[in-house]
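Run folding on both entries below.
>entry_1
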Amino acid sequence: MALPKLASAKYELTLPSTGDKVEYRPFLVKEEKALMMAQQAGDNASLVRAVENIVDACTFGKLNVKDLPFFDIEYIFIQLRGKSVGEKSTVSVTAPDDGETKVVVDINLSDIQCVRDVTHTNKIELTDNIGVMMDYPKMSTFMKVGEDETQAAFEIIKASISQIYDAENVYSRNDMEEKELDEFIESMDHGQFQKLQHFFDSMPRVKHEVEIKNPNTGVTGKVVLQGLQSFFQ
């Protein structure tokens, strides 16, 4: 005789990148087990794959997870975690007044939002008639770059360029040679390169501000948590 099947609750969230409504369920014991094994392995690549697999399964395979911007993945996973394990997450933060005292704080995961800068745009005008169109980086993009910060920034920018246009033509990324794209980026002046960096600085981010009190000094301050790892320790 077949055992009864357990039904999961269903919820809905809004995808930060598009505003589309997405239906999801809490993750199951088998998925939580896979996540714990990835965490214990201490391998970032394994952890990213586990998170992507959980997001894919819990949104019923309706999203192309590997093509989602990294902040979509982070936001979805936080919502999943809240409905699966509990809305409260306990983390340790550093008091801003002395830069060393650790303070334990509880966060309500349902309060966490993906914040968008009003100055943000994916169309970057480099000159009067030359510009680029940008795509949001994926989680896999961050996994491919090395530890050198300067080179990593270059590679992430390069991976995020989807089009280059001038007064007469639009050049698709698929039509660009890697060497040609390298030379295009390297030919920018400081101000032009800063415009590209602003795209990343201003794009949507999973972000939450908490107010804490330093137990040693009695000083109250605010700490901004940003990125998936900030919310789970």
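>entry_2
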Amino acid sequence: MQNSTTVLESQLDWLTASFHTRDSADRAKADADRWARSEVADGAQVKPFRLGGYEGWQAGRVRLGTRLDGALLQLSGDFAERHIADVAVRATNVSRVDIAVTVRLEPAREDLARAHYDDAREHRKVRPSSARPELHQDGDGGSTLYLGDRASNWFLRVYNKHAECLENRDFEGAAHYEGCWRYELEIKGPDALRQAQLYPGILDRPGYCQAYVHQWAENHGVPPVFPYTGDQKIEPGFRRRSDRETRLLWLAQSVKPAVQWLRDSTDRETLVDLLGLSQ
């Protein structure tokens, strides 16, 4: 049966930039603080962040680290897409960008990573020096193709987005991404900087990302299920579940049954005291 395809997302999905002048580092810190406040307001937790000698904090889709010679900023998801122009114009270097295309297949299929793995293996028979594929699968429908070396400047992941959400108990995301697969191209080194400088001036960003990922994957023996252009129904603005929502979900699933048992086993006054609600 022929699958129909709909491209739901086609955008920049990750950005790592460093700032090594005093003015640019100070501006990066101020921007990161402002963006992080909105994440915290939406329920994100502030956690420690360390990478490459940089130390700082992370909150949701924003990570900031500092060291004596400057600052490092990482943005993920649609924060990378929305703020690329602000970052690229001041960054000393952009060391990584990810471009992601999320496509829905109807009917859904679980064997896409395996099919692409076979495609890549056939490609290597003709071109032995081409990128090496790896396939990771689990018993719950999770499946990921890795193409290339993670340490290289180009690295492609193709994974079952719906299964990933279920594994993370992100049921809102699972409903949104039902039948979806994500093609995620990680670009590092000089090509990442060139992409970051080019990207803010592109008028049709979704079209550019779709064509770019499609062309790279096809050139490396993995023809995507989505076309080079078209089949788009871009749905901007969907964001992953916040930390607040995660905690509420955990309370509903794990704590609620215990509270119900206590309610049935003791009087109201004792229950209120045990839960620390007497104040």
